Amino acid sequence: MQIIVIRHGQSEADITGVHEGRADFPLTSLGTEQARSMAHYLAEQLPPELILTSPLKRAKKTAEILQEQIGCELIEESDLMEWNNGVLAGISKGEAAVKYPLPEGGRPYHVPIEKGESELYLRFRAERVFHNIITNHKNLERVAVVSHGGLISNFIKAFIKQPNDDQTIFPTGDTGIHLLEANDESRIVRFLNNQRHLKNKHLQI
User: Fold this and answer.
1) What are the positions of the active site (predicted)?
2) Of 21, 34, 24, 58, residue with least CA distance to 174
């Protein structure tokens, strides 16, 4: 089975300097263009048989644009939402630094942010999504997942079986695509953060 993991296009939060997370900002007009370019690329190169998406606006709209191009089923999956950043959602990064500074030495991995979740629980959700895919959709050859940077990084860590507290981060740009392959014998990373579909300079950040 191939799993195509896709980050949403540019959102309004990306250009306003606020913490996003669970704050539900829509795509910008540029983000919509990026999603259309990504959808066209996947329709030609790697069309999925099923799309799973986070229900947050920026991801769901990206997934809907892909679905329009491909014509396959789309399913919302709440576990694909971004890290629940609690009190930080939607506030400026400057305000957050004053009102909710990180504890000295950083927040422990297992400790949730106020009104949110811990990094450990985010990893748990990513693990759950991955195992649900390979269990419930094992009859499919290719599944697309549309999500968010933090969840995607943890999904890749789950896929390659990194330890829970490993500090490695797998960044994803706007509509960046990762191609992973799982079979009975191995797990293969075909490519990471492919943005070649954003070949027009006006689509790049």
Assistant:
1) 8, 82
2) 34
Name every residue whose Cβ is closer than 8 Å to that of residue 153 and which is 6 or more positions away in sequence: 169, 170, 171, 172
3 state SS of 140: coil
> Positive or negative, the Cα torsion across 87, 93, 95, 97?
positive
Residues marked active site are found at 8, 82
Handedness of CA 115, 59, 76, 151 (dihedral sign): negative
Mapped to the 3 state alphabet, what secondary structure does 90-102 carry?
Answer: CCEHHHHHHHCCC
Per DSSP, what are the bridge partners of residue 194?
177
Which amino acid is residue 63, in one-letter code? A
110-132 per-position pLDDT tens digit: 999 999 999 999 999 999 999 99
pLDDT in tens, 13-69: 999 989 999 999 999 999 999 999 999 999 999 999 999 999 999 999 999 999 999
Question: Does the annotation place 199 within a ligand binding site?
Answer: no
Task: Give the pair of three-digit tokens for residue 116.
Answer: 């949110």
Would you say 190 is a known binding-site residue?
no
Q: Domains in the chain and their CATH numbers? A: 2-203 (3.40.50.1240)
Read off the tokens for 167.
């500090």
Tokens of 66: 């892909």
